[in-house]
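Q: what sequence does this backbone want?
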């Protein structure tokens, strides 16, 4: 895929001290997950990659992200990696935090945790791709500078969360790094790929071409 797409400097989702959270019904540790059934939101998600980086010998169960809490609650799995709104609602739902991968990553690396990227096709050519990236950056900056209106619009698609939690979630993942990931963001992407390759979770470190 990296051979066909440039990564845009803008539009990324970077966790600064927070990220996907492993939850359970009772207190557990990363080590105690060994041999347990752990739900994750899909093989090609950062959440799944982090689980495989940090937790050895777990029985991976792939589920839609919005079904993971239910599976943990019903005992279908022993633990689950939650993303999106679940990261800020799991405590109210009565779950215990096993680990927040964003906290762990920041402690180890002092870098943000790359969770999502925006890309543009290379066959469009550099000039058009750079224009698309620049226009997207302008749009994100406008929303960032008009946060109340942008949040009100986004809450239409907030899957049932209220204004207070919606604003908290937006502020977690829309930051200056979303406008431009900068060298810190690029370094974080390189390190995540490097760690994944070292553990043979990906075949090699892909080219990181930024536009």
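A:
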């Amino acid at each position: 895929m990296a051979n066909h797409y440039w990564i845009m400097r803008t539009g990324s989702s970077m966790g600064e001290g927070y990220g996907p959270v492993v939850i359970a019904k009772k207190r557990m540790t990363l080590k105690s997950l060994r041999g347990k059934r752990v739900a994750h939101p899909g093989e090609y998600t950062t959440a799944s990659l982090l689980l495989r980086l940090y937790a050895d010998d777990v029985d991976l169960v792939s589920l839609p992200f919005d079904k993971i809490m239910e599976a943990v609650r019903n005992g279908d799995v022993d633990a689950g990696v939650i993303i999106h709104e679940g990261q800020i609602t799991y405590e109210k739902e009565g779950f215990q935090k096993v680990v927040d991968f964003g906290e762990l990553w920041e402690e180890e690396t002092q870098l943000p945790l790359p969770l999502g990227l925006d890309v543009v096709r290379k066959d469009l050519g550099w000039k058009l791709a750079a224009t698309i990236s620049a226009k997207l950056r302008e749009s994100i900056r406008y929303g960032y500078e008009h946060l109340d209106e942008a949040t009100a619009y986004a809450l239409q698609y907030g899957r049932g969360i209220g204004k207070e939690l919606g604003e908290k979630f937006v502020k977690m993942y829309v930051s200056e790094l979303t406008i431009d990931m900068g060298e810190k963001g690029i370094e974080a992407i390189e390190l995540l790929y490097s760690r994944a390759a070292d553990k043979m979770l990906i075949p090699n470190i892909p080219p990181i071409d930024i536009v």
